[in-house]
Amino acid sequence: CLWVRNLRLKRRLPGPFAWPVVGNAMQLGQMPHITFAKLAKKYGNVYQIRLGCSDIVVLNGERAIRQALVQHSTEFAGRPNFASFQMISGGRSMTFTNYSKQWKAHRKIAQSSLRAFSSANSQTKKAFEQHVTAEAMELVQVFLRHSTDGRYFDPSYEFTVAAANVICALCFGRRYGHDDLEFRTLLRRVNKFGETVGAGSLVDVMPWLKSFPNPVRSVYENFKNLNEEFFAFVKDKVVEHRESFNPDITRDMSDAIINVIEHGKDSGLTKEFVEATVTDLIGAGQDTASTFMQWIVLLLVKYPDMQAKLQELIDKVVGQDRLPSVEDRSNLALLDAFIYETMRFTSFVPVTIPHSTTSDVTIEGLHIPKDTVVFINQWSVNNDPLTWKDPHIFDPTRFLDENGALDKDKTNSVMIFSMGKRRCIGDQIAKVTVFLFTAVLLHQCSFESDPSEPLTLDCSYGLSLKPLRFCVSAKLRGKLLGLVS
Ligand code: HEM
Fold it and tell me: Which co-factors does it depend on (predicted)?
């Protein structure tokens, strides 16, 4: 029974004293991942906290996290049964559903259709890269327009639109203009998604907060509305696809998913799972990639010497007459190092989406019962002083070996896409997108921050850490290039 289970959890796992009713909620602070890392120093890498009525195990450091997510991958592959998770993707989300046979089938379909449109063979790879490069050139033009007469602008919305377009083109075969007001408004609202599902969000662990007016309740209500609105937007497009579906021509990922789920042999999923899959993919792909790009540009203006060095390298390798491409990657080790250091230093997905245990399990000699909520602290892996010298310092060269090549051991030690059965399925397309966006932006433009505003690396907490508003200006370097077909 629950009582015996809780008693066992209490006896076996170390952790701070939990207050009645709120547990440790008041101790989390503004940046829970940093609090979690501090608590690990006192209680070890595996410990227990309580938030409201939920006992939660927090995992820190590479060894404990790897042991859990890789060695005990099935036991840690669950998701908690949080009320907010049921509101996502029409209640049929793959990302936010518990471990089951159906989840396995759903994840396989999402993963294989994503691969089919981005990396299945050299042709799809090329098509995907060209389309990302075209999106990057749109960004260049929008940025230059916003910088007319030396003006400064907030690049965050443009990155949101660009990242959403990369995934919308895969899913719907179309993109949206940066001045499409309806699309911008939708994305601006979706931007708030991570506030509710980030580890340490209180709505799911203190359900009674929903019964009287308070800031948590309004976050919860907004979350419900934004998910409904976003799902309706996607559903509309999927319905159009369904109506014009032709089994002989697969136009895009929506068609591919309709084909497997509705026309395939016993997918085990009903047709409503098509719109849920597409909603999941657009939601997951857009928010993370745009946050990543905001950090990239913020760090480029924060470290102008690094920006100049990267441009010098790109000029040497690529020249002025063509745009950078993925083939240049092996000659642009410093650029990759800069991207990896951005992932490590910002750890902008500091804690994964909450997991839960699918059966009783023992980790580092500590017993964790079935159905326990588990927080995985990725930030603690990226800031471990035993792996990283001076982890608080931004230094891309830490990823280069003595010959100036990318150090694969080091890049493999960065943890931002999680690991094991729930590992991100968009990591490859995210890496290609961020590499091409950054290379093209640096090749075409120089960025500087607004000198009238202090430049800070402070951020807001959620599923992803987002930089506070900052403004930049972009200047054209050399000539504005078109796309090579
Ligand atoms: C899950 C990171 C981009 C699709 C996740 C998780 C993380 C993550 C940390 C949670 C893993 C866990 O709970 O253990 C990132 C980062 C990205 C990125 C840092 C960009 C830089 C993308 C893109 C897509 C995508 C572009 C798809 C187009 C997904 C899906 C899941 C997921 C579907 C759920 C997997 C599951 O629950 O089985 N991602 N992601 N992600 N990501 Fe990503």
Answer: heme
